[in-house]
Amino acid sequence: MLLSGSLPADVQVRPLIARHDQRGVLFELSRNSWEGAVPVAQWNALQSQAGVLRGMAVHCENTDVYLALEGRALLGLADLRSDSPSFRARCVVELDAKSPLAVTIPVGIAHGLYFETDALVLAALSRRFDAEDKLGCCWDDPWLAIPWPSISPRVLARDQHWPSAKQLVEQVSARLAAAKAADC
Ligand SMILES: Cc1cn([C@H]2C[C@H](O)[C@@H](COP(=O)(O)OP(=O)(O)O[C@H]3O[C@H](C)C(=O)[C@H](O)[C@H]3O)O2)c(=O)[nH]c1=O
């Protein structure tokens, strides 16, 4: 569910259909035939306690898909693609295992995950993990201005000392251009 702000272009939020019966629930996570489906190269599970924030990260080669399997988390998003029609669009989407959503995050979108409760979040990656394909900025960078609710998250010291989001935009532009050139 979109909590606040506006969704950047190309970010896809797909509600997953829960099939309940007396045994519990089953829902499909992904089908290759769904529009905009991401070919998955790797699956990750992220488990954290309430109050933790992971990110903000931005990838220039990898598309991520996030969904909550247990608990609730907030996904803060911001469009850092300077040539995007929604450049600087930012928002917060709630991932709730009770009404699951799959959120697809294309390249160039900064994202951070705040755990509202203890939670287990699944991430599908379109490419295998490459530490070089991870840039970052602070979750509360004023230029980024993600419309988080009032939170005081626990973050790694590393994630408090990234360059500013404004500087990050230039890095992202250069990397996206290089990735596009390599594809041609
Ligand atoms: C993503 C990944 C990480 N790692 C290793 C690297 C570190 O030693 C350790 C923790 O990784 P990292 O510090 O990158 O994790 P987060 O900062 O929580 O990042 C995660 O959450 C933010 C929001 C993201 O967007 C990242 O892509 C996502 O995976 O696992 C691996 O071995 N494989 C992997 O696929």
From TrEMBL:
Signal peptide: none annotated. One of its GO terms (molecular function) is dTDP-4-dehydrorhamnose 3,5-epimerase activity. GO terms for biological process: dTDP-rhamnose biosynthetic process; polysaccharide biosynthetic process. It is an enzyme of class 5 (isomerase). Pfam families: dTDP_sugar_isom (PF00908). GO terms for cellular component: cytosol. The record marks 129 as: Participates in a stacking interaction with the thymidine ring of dTDP-4-oxo-6-deoxyglucose. Its EC number is 5.1.3.13. It catalyses: dTDP-4-dehydro-6-deoxy-alpha-D-glucose = dTDP-4-dehydro-beta-L-rhamnose. Catalyzes the epimerization of the C3' and C5'positions of dTDP-6-deoxy-D-xylo-4-hexulose, forming dTDP-6-deoxy-L-lyxo-4-hexulose. This is dTDP-4-dehydrorhamnose 3,5-epimerase. The lineage of its organism: Bacteria, Pseudomonadati, Pseudomonadota, Gammaproteobacteria, Lysobacterales.
